[in-house]
């Protein structure tokens, strides 16, 4: 009996104009999304390769050790191909990072060539599913029961010995199946276009992540099919059902994910980016104010070097203390907003999809921690190099030769290398279930940068 009801519902959907329109929209939106994002990824990849080569050449040609340490060393994160399907925080992570001894971490401009990605939300697959396809799922199911009640066909079905629960189950299965077919056709077409036009390729872990994202997307779509059926069973008229279902969609998809982070900020205030930057700059000025005179009064180069090292360590320790307090406050905001936003299926979907793609909050935190480690390692290595050079220079009598030893060009092999390793799928799959973060927070490492999840 159930199979008969399912076939009947599927046939009704396939013969309806509504399904035809949905299929065309699915195909057009997904193809356009994947094509646009894949093309932009290729531009990012080219920009990344060119920038890395320029940075490597500049480091090899550096002739002034002190000037280079003052201006800083620039590093790059390789673009993530999974951002084609789930942008997440990739726009924040795809920036050059400059680390120096005298200033905090500085971010370069975004590597995204298309300025419309900043003016409008990124049109990735997750955005299309989250906003557009979820609404289409509502429109497909809002009149599944009340519509047949209005045109009297529901009574014809129930006049047979058919349990009502089977009718509901058949409608739900049929609705999910037709949307799954439309979604699968659209995605396959989008992938073919992206593969041949932008040469987009994925490795094994990335394919597993993509398949998981598609599975999570279908769970998310089925949630709104269920919501539409629920509203349809509770209302008498299709117009009333449509209005209630649309209102529920607006609350769950648009209002909750955007209001909850604002509420968390109000409940747990954190200093602004300008305040943090001002405090760090004040520390640097205060510490360096008397250092120059102290170094002039020092009798030996070793003593001057020790003064420089001690001042650098104090600046780093005081700046880290400020950032730790800022990070703690932001993490509290994150925890509260994540807890409150769990009532929205849209928020849960974004957390899962971005984490599976490697563009989520946890990946942003991993990048932040890696940059912090790189900064500590670089500082320690530079201090060691300067001390070793000072020791060698102290054994030389000629003043010009001593200066040449201290200011000799840098061998890039002497410095630590900034590398980002993406965790494998086996690590990424269970991770999002135990941790999630809200949309729209300022970065704990980069004051003033904004988490991009809310744009989805």
Write the layout of secondary structure elements.
Layout (H helix, E strand, L loop, with lengths): L1 H13 L2 H45 L3 H7 L1 E3 L14 H4 L1 E5 L6 E5 L5 H4 L5 H17 L4 H5 L2 H6 L5 H35 L5 H31 L3 H30 L5 H16 L2 H7 L3 H41 L3 H13 L3 H34 L4 H8 L18 H10 L22
Antiparallel strand pairs: 1-2, 2-3
Helix pairs in contact: 1-9, 2-6, 2-9, 6-10, 6-11, 9-10, 10-11, 10-15, 10-18, 11-14, 12-14, 13-14, 14-16, 15-18, 16-17
Description:
By secondary structure, this protein is an all-alpha fold. The protein has 2 domains: 2-36 and 125-257, no CATH class; 62-80 and 92-105 and 262-455, no CATH class. Helices cover 71% and strands 3% of the residues. It contains 18 helices and 3 strands. The chain has helices spanning 2-14, 17-61, 65-71, 90-93, 116-119, 125-141, 146-150, 153-158, 164-198, 204-234, 238-267, 273-288, 291-297, 301-341, 345-357, 361-394, 399-406, 425-434, and strands at residues 73-75, 95-99, 106-110. A 3-stranded antiparallel sheet has the order 1-2-3. Helix 9 (164-198) packs antiparallel against helix 10, helix 10 crosses helix 11 (238-267) and helix 10 packs parallel to helix 18 (425-434). The protein is elongated and about 105 Å long. Residues 432-456 have low confidence and may be disordered.
């Amino acid at each position: 009996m159930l199979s008969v009801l399912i076939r009947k519902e599927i046939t009704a959907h396939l013969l309806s104009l509504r399904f035809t329109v949905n299929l065309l929209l699915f195909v057009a939106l997904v193809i356009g999304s994947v094509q646009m994002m894949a093309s932009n990824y290729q531009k990012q990849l080219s920009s990344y390769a060119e920038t890395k080569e320029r940075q490597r050449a500049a480091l090899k040609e550096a002739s002034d050790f002190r000037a280079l340490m003052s201006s800083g060393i620039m590093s790059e994160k390789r673009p993530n191909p999974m951002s084609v399907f789930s942008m997440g925080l990739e726009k924040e992570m795809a920036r050059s990072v400059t680390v120096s001894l005298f200033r905090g971490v500085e971010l370069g401009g975004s590597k995204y060539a298309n300025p419309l990605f900043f003016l409008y939300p990124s049109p990735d697959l997750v955005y299309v599913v989250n906003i557009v396809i979820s609404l289409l799922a509502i429109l497909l199911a809002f009149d599944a029961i009340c519509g047949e009640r209005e045109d009297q066909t529901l009574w014809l079905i129930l006049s047979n010995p058919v349990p009502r629960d089977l009718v509901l189950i058949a409608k739900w299965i049929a609705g999910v199946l037709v949307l799954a077919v439309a979604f699968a056709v659209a995605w396959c077409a989008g992938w073919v276009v992206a593969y041949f036009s932008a040469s987009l390729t994925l490795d094994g872990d990335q394919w597993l992540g993509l398949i998981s994202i598609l599975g999570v997307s279908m769970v998310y779509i089925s949630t709104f099919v269920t919501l539409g059926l629920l509203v349809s069973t509770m209302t008498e008229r299709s117009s009333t059902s449509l209005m209630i279902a649309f209102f529920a969609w607006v609350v769950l998809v648009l209002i909750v994910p955007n209001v909850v982070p604002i509420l968390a900020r109000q409940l747990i205030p954190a200093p602004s980016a300008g305040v943090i930057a001002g405090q760090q700059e004040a520390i640097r000025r205060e510490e360096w104010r008397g250092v120059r005179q102290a170094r002039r009064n020092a009798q030996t180069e070793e003593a001057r070097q020790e003064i420089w090292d001690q001042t650098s360590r104090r600046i780093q320790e005081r700046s880290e203390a400020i950032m730790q307090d800022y990070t703690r406050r932001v993490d509290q905001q994150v925890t509260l907003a994540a807890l409150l936003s769990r009532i929205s299926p849209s928020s849960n979907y974004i957390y899962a999809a971005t984490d599976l793609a490697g563009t989520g909050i946890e990946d942003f935190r991993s990048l932040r921690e890696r940059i912090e480690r790189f900064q500590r390692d670089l500082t320690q290595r530079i201090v060691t190099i300067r001390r070793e050079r000072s020791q060698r220079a102290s054994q030389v009598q000629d003043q010009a030769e001593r200066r040449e030893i201290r200011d000799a060009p840098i061998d890039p092999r002497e410095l630590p290398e900034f590398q980002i390793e993406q965790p494998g799928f086996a690590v990424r799959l269970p991770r999002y279930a135990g941790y999630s973060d809200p949309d729209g927070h300022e970065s704990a490492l980069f004051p003033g940068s904004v988490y991009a999840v809310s744009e989805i």
